Amino acid sequence: MNHPARPPSVDSLLNRPEVADLKERYGHSAVVAALRAELGELRETLKTQPTPDVDPARIVTDCRKRLETEFSPNLRPVFNLTGTVLHTNLGRALLADEAVEAVLAVLARPSNLEYDLDNAKRGDRDDHIDGLIRELTGAEAATVVNNNAAAVFLLLNTLAIRKEVIVSRGELIEIGGAFRIPDIMSRAGAKLREVGTTNRTHRKDYVEAVNPRTALIMKVHRSNYAIEGFTATVPEDQLAELAREHGLPFVEDLGSGTLIDLSSYGLPKEPTPQQALAKGTDLVSFSGDKLLGGPQAGILVGRKELIAKLKRNPLKRALRVDKMTLAALEATLKLYRSPELLSRRLPTLRLLTRSEDDILALARRILPAMQTALSDHAVVSIESCRSQIGSGSLPVDRLPSACLVLVPKGKGGGRALSRLANAFRDLPVPVIGRLEDGALRFDLRCLEDESGFVAQLAQLEL
Ligand SMILES: *Cc1c(COP(=O)(O)O)cnc(C)c1O
Q1: pLDDT tens across 195-206, in order?
Q2: pTM of the entire structure?
Q3: β-strands 214-220, 164-168: how paired?
Q4: What domains appear along the chain, each with residue ranges and CATH number?
Q5: Which atom of ligand 1 is nearest to the CA of 221?
Q6: Residue 159 above 90 pLDDT?
Q7: d(Cα 173, Cα 154) in Å, to the nearest integer?
Q8: Exposed, middle or buried, 166 (CB in 10 Å: 0-12/13-18/19+)?
Q9: 258 lines ligand 1 (CB under 6 A)
Protein backbone atom coordinates (compact mmCIF):
# COMPACT_ATOMS: atom_id res chain seq x y z
CA MET A 1 0.00 0.00 0.00
CA ASN A 2 1.17 3.52 -0.86
CA HIS A 3 1.61 5.84 2.08
CA PRO A 4 0.57 9.44 1.39
CA ALA A 5 3.61 11.59 0.66
CA ARG A 6 4.85 13.75 3.57
CA PRO A 7 6.56 17.09 3.11
CA PRO A 8 10.02 17.44 4.68
CA SER A 9 10.51 19.56 7.82
CA VAL A 10 11.81 23.15 7.76
CA ASP A 11 14.85 22.06 9.80
CA SER A 12 15.83 19.28 7.41
CA LEU A 13 15.58 21.72 4.50
CA LEU A 14 17.62 24.38 6.33
CA ASN A 15 20.46 21.88 6.73
CA ARG A 16 20.73 21.12 3.02
CA PRO A 17 24.02 22.39 1.55
CA GLU A 18 22.40 24.41 -1.26
CA VAL A 19 20.47 26.46 1.35
CA ALA A 20 23.72 27.87 2.76
CA ASP A 21 24.13 30.48 0.02
CA LEU A 22 20.46 31.47 0.32
CA LYS A 23 21.04 32.19 4.02
CA GLU A 24 24.16 34.17 3.14
CA ARG A 25 22.24 36.27 0.58
CA TYR A 26 18.89 36.79 2.24
CA GLY A 27 19.48 36.02 5.94
CA HIS A 28 18.19 33.17 8.10
CA SER A 29 14.73 34.55 8.93
CA ALA A 30 13.78 35.38 5.31
CA VAL A 31 14.84 31.86 4.21
CA VAL A 32 12.81 30.25 7.00
CA ALA A 33 9.77 32.35 6.04
CA ALA A 34 10.13 31.38 2.37
CA LEU A 35 10.52 27.67 3.20
CA ARG A 36 7.43 27.83 5.43
CA ALA A 37 5.48 29.49 2.62
CA GLU A 38 6.55 26.76 0.17
CA LEU A 39 5.63 24.00 2.64
CA GLY A 40 2.29 25.67 3.34
CA GLU A 41 1.45 25.61 -0.35
CA LEU A 42 2.53 21.99 -0.52
CA ARG A 43 0.20 21.04 2.32
CA GLU A 44 -2.66 22.75 0.52
CA THR A 45 -1.88 20.66 -2.57
CA LEU A 46 -1.80 17.50 -0.46
CA LYS A 47 -5.44 18.00 0.47
CA THR A 48 -6.61 17.55 -3.09
CA GLN A 49 -3.75 15.60 -4.67
CA PRO A 50 -2.44 12.62 -2.68
CA THR A 51 0.91 12.24 -4.47
CA PRO A 52 2.44 15.67 -5.07
CA ASP A 53 6.14 16.23 -5.66
CA VAL A 54 7.70 16.47 -2.18
CA ASP A 55 11.30 16.23 -3.39
CA PRO A 56 13.34 18.46 -1.01
CA ALA A 57 15.63 19.64 -3.83
CA ARG A 58 12.63 20.93 -5.79
CA ILE A 59 11.23 22.66 -2.72
CA VAL A 60 14.54 24.48 -2.27
CA THR A 61 14.55 25.47 -5.95
CA ASP A 62 11.05 26.92 -5.59
CA CYS A 63 12.14 28.65 -2.41
CA ARG A 64 15.06 30.24 -4.28
CA LYS A 65 12.69 31.54 -6.98
CA ARG A 66 10.34 32.90 -4.32
CA LEU A 67 13.18 34.78 -2.61
CA GLU A 68 14.48 36.15 -5.92
CA THR A 69 11.03 37.52 -6.71
CA GLU A 70 10.50 38.90 -3.21
CA PHE A 71 13.86 40.66 -3.16
CA SER A 72 13.82 42.02 -6.72
CA PRO A 73 12.73 45.65 -7.02
CA ASN A 74 9.09 46.27 -7.76
CA LEU A 75 9.93 49.64 -9.32
CA ARG A 76 12.08 48.78 -12.31
CA PRO A 77 12.88 49.73 -15.89
CA VAL A 78 10.52 49.04 -18.79
CA PHE A 79 10.63 49.66 -22.52
CA ASN A 80 8.34 52.59 -23.29
CA LEU A 81 7.04 51.80 -26.77
CA THR A 82 3.73 53.58 -26.22
CA GLY A 83 4.61 56.41 -28.56
CA THR A 84 4.34 59.00 -25.77
CA VAL A 85 7.81 60.32 -25.00
CA LEU A 86 7.11 62.07 -21.67
CA HIS A 87 4.81 59.39 -20.25
CA THR A 88 3.74 60.28 -16.71
CA ASN A 89 2.94 56.66 -15.81
CA LEU A 90 6.32 55.51 -17.12
CA GLY A 91 8.42 58.06 -15.25
CA ARG A 92 8.48 61.06 -17.64
CA ALA A 93 11.91 62.47 -18.52
CA LEU A 94 14.94 60.15 -18.53
CA LEU A 95 17.96 61.71 -16.90
CA ALA A 96 21.10 62.52 -18.87
CA ASP A 97 24.27 60.59 -17.95
CA GLU A 98 25.67 63.78 -16.44
CA ALA A 99 22.66 64.03 -14.11
CA VAL A 100 22.86 60.37 -13.10
CA GLU A 101 26.55 60.79 -12.23
CA ALA A 102 25.82 63.90 -10.20
CA VAL A 103 23.19 62.03 -8.18
CA LEU A 104 25.49 59.07 -7.59
CA ALA A 105 28.23 61.38 -6.36
CA VAL A 106 26.17 62.77 -3.46
CA LEU A 107 24.18 59.65 -2.60
CA ALA A 108 26.44 57.84 -0.20
CA ARG A 109 28.76 60.65 0.83
CA PRO A 110 28.26 63.89 2.74
CA SER A 111 27.75 66.97 0.58
CA ASN A 112 27.56 70.76 0.95
CA LEU A 113 23.77 70.57 0.57
CA GLU A 114 23.16 73.42 3.03
CA TYR A 115 26.70 74.47 3.77
CA ASP A 116 28.43 77.54 2.40
CA LEU A 117 31.99 76.36 1.67
CA ASP A 118 33.33 79.88 1.10
CA ASN A 119 32.26 81.28 4.45
CA ALA A 120 32.04 78.09 6.51
CA LYS A 121 28.47 78.74 7.58
CA ARG A 122 24.98 77.45 6.99
CA GLY A 123 23.90 77.70 3.35
CA ASP A 124 20.60 77.56 1.45
CA ARG A 125 19.94 74.48 -0.67
CA ASP A 126 18.44 76.67 -3.40
CA ASP A 127 21.87 78.29 -3.87
CA HIS A 128 23.03 75.30 -5.93
CA ILE A 129 20.60 76.10 -8.74
CA ASP A 130 19.46 79.66 -8.15
CA GLY A 131 22.25 81.29 -10.17
CA LEU A 132 21.95 78.80 -13.03
CA ILE A 133 18.21 79.26 -13.36
CA ARG A 134 18.62 83.04 -13.28
CA GLU A 135 21.32 82.81 -15.96
CA LEU A 136 19.17 80.60 -18.22
CA THR A 137 15.83 82.39 -17.78
CA GLY A 138 16.83 85.98 -17.06
CA ALA A 139 14.76 85.89 -13.86
CA GLU A 140 15.59 88.01 -10.81
CA ALA A 141 15.26 85.03 -8.48
CA ALA A 142 14.31 81.36 -8.43
CA THR A 143 13.36 78.56 -6.07
CA VAL A 144 12.57 74.86 -6.39
CA VAL A 145 9.99 72.55 -4.79
CA ASN A 146 8.90 68.94 -5.21
CA ASN A 147 6.90 69.29 -8.42
CA ASN A 148 4.94 71.88 -10.34
CA ALA A 149 1.72 71.05 -8.47
CA ALA A 150 3.58 71.96 -5.27
CA ALA A 151 4.92 75.13 -6.91
CA VAL A 152 1.40 76.29 -7.81
CA PHE A 153 0.18 75.35 -4.34
CA LEU A 154 2.97 77.28 -2.65
CA LEU A 155 2.47 80.39 -4.74
CA LEU A 156 -1.29 80.44 -4.13
CA ASN A 157 -0.93 79.74 -0.42
CA THR A 158 1.71 82.44 -0.04
CA LEU A 159 0.28 85.21 -2.17
CA ALA A 160 -3.47 84.61 -2.18
CA ILE A 161 -4.59 83.00 1.09
CA ARG A 162 -8.15 84.12 1.95
CA LYS A 163 -8.13 86.28 -1.17
CA GLU A 164 -9.28 85.94 -4.78
CA VAL A 165 -7.39 84.73 -7.83
CA ILE A 166 -8.74 85.62 -11.24
CA VAL A 167 -8.49 82.81 -13.84
CA SER A 168 -10.15 82.38 -17.23
CA ARG A 169 -12.77 79.61 -17.43
CA GLY A 170 -10.89 78.30 -20.46
CA GLU A 171 -7.91 77.49 -18.21
CA LEU A 172 -9.58 75.56 -15.37
CA ILE A 173 -7.72 72.43 -16.34
CA GLU A 174 -7.24 68.97 -14.94
CA ILE A 175 -3.84 67.36 -15.47
CA GLY A 176 -3.53 63.57 -15.23
CA GLY A 177 -3.21 62.30 -11.68
CA ALA A 178 -5.91 64.61 -10.26
CA PHE A 179 -4.24 68.00 -10.43
CA ARG A 180 -7.21 70.35 -10.86
CA ILE A 181 -6.81 74.09 -10.71
CA PRO A 182 -10.05 74.72 -8.73
CA ASP A 183 -9.17 72.01 -6.17
CA ILE A 184 -5.58 73.09 -5.65
CA MET A 185 -6.80 76.67 -5.30
CA SER A 186 -9.27 75.86 -2.50
CA ARG A 187 -6.77 73.60 -0.69
CA ALA A 188 -4.25 76.42 -0.82
CA GLY A 189 -6.80 78.66 0.86
CA ALA A 190 -7.41 80.91 -2.12
CA LYS A 191 -10.73 81.75 -3.72
CA LEU A 192 -11.10 81.13 -7.42
CA ARG A 193 -12.69 83.97 -9.33
CA GLU A 194 -13.62 82.53 -12.75
CA VAL A 195 -13.97 84.90 -15.66
CA GLY A 196 -15.02 84.63 -19.31
CA THR A 197 -16.31 81.46 -20.94
CA THR A 198 -14.70 78.18 -21.93
CA ASN A 199 -13.80 79.40 -25.40
CA ARG A 200 -13.60 83.18 -25.05
CA THR A 201 -12.23 85.46 -22.35
CA HIS A 202 -11.70 89.20 -22.90
CA ARG A 203 -9.72 91.92 -21.17
CA LYS A 204 -12.92 93.49 -19.83
CA ASP A 205 -13.81 90.19 -18.09
CA TYR A 206 -10.63 90.51 -16.03
CA VAL A 207 -11.15 94.25 -15.46
CA GLU A 208 -14.68 93.70 -14.11
CA ALA A 209 -13.50 90.95 -11.76
CA VAL A 210 -10.81 93.00 -10.01
CA ASN A 211 -11.91 94.10 -6.54
CA PRO A 212 -10.31 94.86 -3.14
CA ARG A 213 -10.14 91.13 -2.30
CA THR A 214 -8.17 90.27 -5.46
CA ALA A 215 -4.69 88.90 -4.76
CA LEU A 216 -3.49 87.71 -8.18
CA ILE A 217 -4.26 87.47 -11.85
CA MET A 218 -3.29 84.01 -13.00
CA LYS A 219 -2.79 82.30 -16.33
CA VAL A 220 -2.61 78.53 -16.68
CA HIS A 221 -1.08 76.87 -19.71
CA ARG A 222 -3.75 74.57 -21.14
CA SER A 223 -1.17 71.86 -21.62
CA ASN A 224 -3.15 68.75 -22.46
CA TYR A 225 -5.97 70.10 -24.57
CA ALA A 226 -6.69 72.65 -27.24
CA ILE A 227 -9.60 74.98 -27.76
CA GLU A 228 -10.16 75.63 -31.43
CA GLY A 229 -12.58 77.63 -33.54
CA PHE A 230 -14.32 80.71 -32.14
CA THR A 231 -11.84 81.56 -29.41
CA ALA A 232 -10.34 84.55 -27.64
CA THR A 233 -7.74 84.86 -24.91
CA VAL A 234 -5.96 87.87 -23.49
CA PRO A 235 -2.21 87.93 -24.27
CA GLU A 236 0.19 87.79 -21.32
CA ASP A 237 1.59 91.28 -21.84
CA GLN A 238 -1.90 92.78 -21.58
CA LEU A 239 -2.67 90.77 -18.43
CA ALA A 240 0.67 91.82 -16.94
CA GLU A 241 -0.12 95.47 -17.68
CA LEU A 242 -3.61 95.17 -16.23
CA ALA A 243 -2.23 93.57 -13.08
CA ARG A 244 0.36 96.33 -12.75
CA GLU A 245 -2.32 99.03 -13.08
CA HIS A 246 -4.04 97.50 -10.05
CA GLY A 247 -0.86 96.80 -8.09
CA LEU A 248 -1.37 93.01 -8.36
CA PRO A 249 1.14 90.31 -9.31
CA PHE A 250 0.50 88.44 -12.57
CA VAL A 251 1.49 84.77 -12.26
CA GLU A 252 1.59 81.97 -14.81
CA ASP A 253 1.58 78.18 -14.47
CA LEU A 254 3.48 77.23 -17.62
CA GLY A 255 3.27 73.46 -17.15
CA SER A 256 6.01 71.99 -19.29
CA GLY A 257 8.18 75.05 -19.61
CA THR A 258 11.07 74.25 -21.91
CA LEU A 259 14.09 76.55 -21.76
CA ILE A 260 14.83 76.44 -25.48
CA ASP A 261 13.00 77.37 -28.65
CA LEU A 262 11.73 73.95 -29.69
CA SER A 263 10.82 75.19 -33.16
CA SER A 264 14.53 75.53 -33.94
CA TYR A 265 14.65 71.72 -33.59
CA GLY A 266 11.64 71.27 -35.88
CA LEU A 267 9.34 70.66 -32.92
CA PRO A 268 6.07 72.40 -32.05
CA LYS A 269 6.57 75.74 -30.34
CA GLU A 270 6.09 75.80 -26.57
CA PRO A 271 6.17 78.93 -24.44
CA THR A 272 9.34 79.37 -22.37
CA PRO A 273 9.68 80.94 -18.90
CA GLN A 274 12.06 83.54 -20.35
CA GLN A 275 9.38 84.64 -22.85
CA ALA A 276 6.77 84.79 -20.08
CA LEU A 277 9.09 86.92 -17.94
CA ALA A 278 9.88 89.20 -20.88
CA LYS A 279 6.15 89.81 -21.30
CA GLY A 280 5.97 91.07 -17.75
CA THR A 281 4.82 87.99 -15.86
CA ASP A 282 5.86 88.40 -12.21
CA LEU A 283 6.09 84.74 -11.28
CA VAL A 284 6.26 81.66 -13.50
CA SER A 285 6.10 78.00 -12.46
CA PHE A 286 7.05 74.91 -14.48
CA SER A 287 7.99 71.23 -14.12
CA GLY A 288 11.49 69.78 -13.95
CA ASP A 289 10.66 66.42 -15.54
CA LYS A 290 8.66 67.45 -18.58
CA LEU A 291 10.33 69.15 -21.55
CA LEU A 292 13.18 70.41 -19.36
CA GLY A 293 14.32 66.79 -19.22
CA GLY A 294 15.41 66.73 -15.58
CA PRO A 295 14.23 65.23 -12.29
CA GLN A 296 10.76 65.66 -10.82
CA ALA A 297 10.68 69.21 -9.50
CA GLY A 298 8.67 72.41 -9.62
CA ILE A 299 10.64 75.51 -10.54
CA LEU A 300 9.49 79.02 -9.70
CA VAL A 301 11.12 82.05 -11.29
CA GLY A 302 10.33 85.73 -11.11
CA ARG A 303 10.49 88.88 -9.02
CA LYS A 304 12.87 88.81 -6.11
CA GLU A 305 10.46 89.96 -3.42
CA LEU A 306 7.84 87.40 -4.48
CA ILE A 307 10.34 84.52 -4.44
CA ALA A 308 11.54 85.73 -1.03
CA LYS A 309 7.94 85.57 0.25
CA LEU A 310 7.55 82.02 -1.07
CA LYS A 311 10.74 81.00 0.71
CA ARG A 312 9.50 82.41 4.01
CA ASN A 313 6.30 80.32 3.91
CA PRO A 314 6.72 77.34 6.31
CA LEU A 315 5.19 75.15 3.59
CA LYS A 316 8.36 75.67 1.55
CA ARG A 317 10.08 73.46 4.13
CA ALA A 318 7.46 70.76 3.67
CA LEU A 319 7.69 70.93 -0.13
CA ARG A 320 11.47 71.21 -0.43
CA VAL A 321 13.46 68.97 -2.76
CA ASP A 322 16.11 66.50 -1.63
CA LYS A 323 19.79 66.34 -2.54
CA MET A 324 19.22 63.81 -5.33
CA THR A 325 16.83 66.16 -7.07
CA LEU A 326 19.15 69.13 -6.65
CA ALA A 327 22.14 67.20 -7.97
CA ALA A 328 20.19 65.99 -11.01
CA LEU A 329 18.65 69.40 -11.63
CA GLU A 330 21.97 71.25 -11.44
CA ALA A 331 23.61 68.83 -13.89
CA THR A 332 20.63 68.98 -16.26
CA LEU A 333 20.57 72.78 -16.23
CA LYS A 334 24.32 72.94 -16.91
CA LEU A 335 23.75 71.00 -20.14
CA TYR A 336 21.79 74.02 -21.38
CA ARG A 337 25.03 76.02 -21.33
CA SER A 338 26.10 74.01 -24.40
CA PRO A 339 23.03 74.27 -26.61
CA GLU A 340 24.77 72.70 -29.64
CA LEU A 341 25.25 69.45 -27.71
CA LEU A 342 21.85 69.39 -26.08
CA SER A 343 20.02 67.19 -28.57
CA ARG A 344 22.67 64.53 -28.10
CA ARG A 345 23.06 64.72 -24.33
CA LEU A 346 19.54 65.36 -23.09
CA PRO A 347 17.53 62.14 -23.60
CA THR A 348 14.17 63.94 -23.83
CA LEU A 349 15.37 66.18 -26.64
CA ARG A 350 17.27 63.31 -28.29
CA LEU A 351 14.11 61.19 -28.43
CA LEU A 352 11.88 64.05 -29.52
CA THR A 353 14.22 65.01 -32.37
CA ARG A 354 14.89 61.46 -33.57
CA SER A 355 14.18 61.38 -37.28
CA GLU A 356 11.54 59.21 -38.90
CA ASP A 357 14.25 57.70 -41.14
CA ASP A 358 16.31 56.69 -38.14
CA ILE A 359 13.31 55.05 -36.44
CA LEU A 360 12.30 53.31 -39.68
CA ALA A 361 15.82 51.91 -40.11
CA LEU A 362 15.63 50.59 -36.54
CA ALA A 363 12.26 48.97 -37.31
CA ARG A 364 13.74 47.23 -40.36
CA ARG A 365 16.70 45.95 -38.33
CA ILE A 366 14.61 44.37 -35.60
CA LEU A 367 11.72 43.13 -37.77
CA PRO A 368 13.35 39.74 -38.57
CA ALA A 369 14.03 38.99 -34.88
CA MET A 370 10.43 39.85 -34.02
CA GLN A 371 9.11 37.67 -36.84
CA THR A 372 11.23 34.74 -35.65
CA ALA A 373 10.13 35.19 -32.03
CA LEU A 374 6.45 35.39 -32.95
CA SER A 375 6.42 33.04 -35.98
CA ASP A 376 3.34 30.95 -35.09
CA HIS A 377 1.59 33.54 -33.03
CA ALA A 378 1.46 36.88 -34.80
CA VAL A 379 2.06 38.64 -38.08
CA VAL A 380 4.51 41.50 -37.70
CA SER A 381 4.76 44.46 -40.04
CA ILE A 382 6.12 48.00 -40.09
CA GLU A 383 3.84 51.02 -40.31
CA SER A 384 4.40 54.71 -40.05
CA CYS A 385 2.78 56.30 -37.03
CA ARG A 386 2.84 59.47 -34.96
CA SER A 387 4.38 59.86 -31.53
CA GLN A 388 3.14 62.28 -28.89
CA ILE A 389 5.34 64.53 -26.79
CA GLY A 390 3.19 63.88 -23.72
CA SER A 391 2.99 65.53 -20.29
CA GLY A 392 1.04 68.49 -21.39
CA SER A 393 2.34 69.39 -24.79
CA LEU A 394 -0.56 69.84 -27.14
CA PRO A 395 -2.13 66.50 -28.07
CA VAL A 396 -2.63 67.84 -31.58
CA ASP A 397 1.12 68.06 -32.20
CA ARG A 398 2.40 64.70 -33.41
CA LEU A 399 5.85 63.57 -34.49
CA PRO A 400 6.24 61.24 -37.50
CA SER A 401 7.60 57.88 -36.37
CA ALA A 402 7.58 54.16 -37.22
CA CYS A 403 6.06 51.26 -35.34
CA LEU A 404 5.96 47.49 -35.36
CA VAL A 405 2.39 46.24 -35.70
CA LEU A 406 1.62 42.81 -34.23
CA VAL A 407 -1.62 41.07 -35.27
CA PRO A 408 -2.36 37.68 -33.66
CA LYS A 409 -2.64 34.81 -36.12
CA GLY A 410 -5.81 32.71 -36.42
CA LYS A 411 -8.89 33.03 -34.21
CA GLY A 412 -9.05 34.27 -30.66
CA GLY A 413 -9.50 37.97 -31.42
CA GLY A 414 -9.32 40.17 -28.32
CA ARG A 415 -8.17 37.35 -26.03
CA ALA A 416 -5.26 36.44 -28.30
CA LEU A 417 -4.31 40.10 -28.46
CA SER A 418 -4.27 40.55 -24.68
CA ARG A 419 -2.27 37.30 -24.32
CA LEU A 420 0.28 38.76 -26.70
CA ALA A 421 0.44 42.06 -24.78
CA ASN A 422 0.77 40.14 -21.48
CA ALA A 423 3.67 38.07 -22.82
CA PHE A 424 5.59 41.25 -23.64
CA ARG A 425 4.79 42.74 -20.22
CA ASP A 426 6.05 39.52 -18.54
CA LEU A 427 9.55 39.87 -20.04
CA PRO A 428 12.44 40.67 -17.63
CA VAL A 429 12.31 44.26 -18.89
CA PRO A 430 8.58 44.62 -19.57
CA VAL A 431 7.67 46.01 -22.99
CA ILE A 432 4.74 48.43 -22.95
CA GLY A 433 2.99 49.15 -26.24
CA ARG A 434 -0.43 50.32 -27.30
CA LEU A 435 -3.49 48.20 -28.21
CA GLU A 436 -5.31 49.71 -31.14
CA ASP A 437 -7.58 48.41 -33.92
CA GLY A 438 -7.01 44.73 -33.13
CA ALA A 439 -3.22 45.10 -33.10
CA LEU A 440 -0.43 45.58 -30.59
CA ARG A 441 1.64 48.56 -31.65
CA PHE A 442 5.20 49.31 -30.63
CA ASP A 443 6.27 52.85 -31.52
CA LEU A 444 10.07 52.61 -31.72
CA ARG A 445 10.88 56.30 -31.13
CA CYS A 446 11.93 55.65 -27.52
CA LEU A 447 13.79 52.38 -28.14
CA GLU A 448 17.48 53.08 -27.60
CA ASP A 449 18.66 49.76 -26.12
CA GLU A 450 18.18 47.84 -29.36
CA SER A 451 20.33 44.83 -28.45
CA GLY A 452 18.76 44.48 -24.99
CA PHE A 453 15.34 44.51 -26.57
CA VAL A 454 16.20 41.87 -29.17
CA ALA A 455 18.09 39.66 -26.69
CA GLN A 456 15.11 39.12 -24.41
CA LEU A 457 12.70 38.21 -27.24
CA ALA A 458 13.86 34.58 -26.87
CA GLN A 459 12.24 34.55 -23.42
CA LEU A 460 8.76 35.39 -24.70
CA GLU A 461 6.26 32.88 -23.31
CA LEU A 462 3.41 32.77 -25.78
C1 LIG B 1 1.98 69.09 -15.69
C2 LIG B 1 1.33 70.33 -15.21
C3 LIG B 1 1.17 70.58 -13.84
C4 LIG B 1 1.63 69.61 -12.81
O5 LIG B 1 3.02 69.51 -12.80
P6 LIG B 1 3.77 68.33 -12.00
O7 LIG B 1 5.20 68.63 -12.16
O8 LIG B 1 3.32 67.06 -12.61
O9 LIG B 1 3.31 68.44 -10.57
C10 LIG B 1 0.57 71.75 -13.46
N11 LIG B 1 0.13 72.64 -14.37
C12 LIG B 1 0.26 72.44 -15.69
C13 LIG B 1 -0.25 73.47 -16.64
C14 LIG B 1 0.86 71.27 -16.17
O15 LIG B 1 0.99 71.06 -17.48
Answers
A1: 999 899 999 999
A2: 0.93
A3: parallel
A4: 10-71 (no CATH), 79-88+351-459 (3.90.1150.180), 97-342 (3.40.640.10)
A5: 13
A6: yes
A7: 18
A8: buried
A9: no
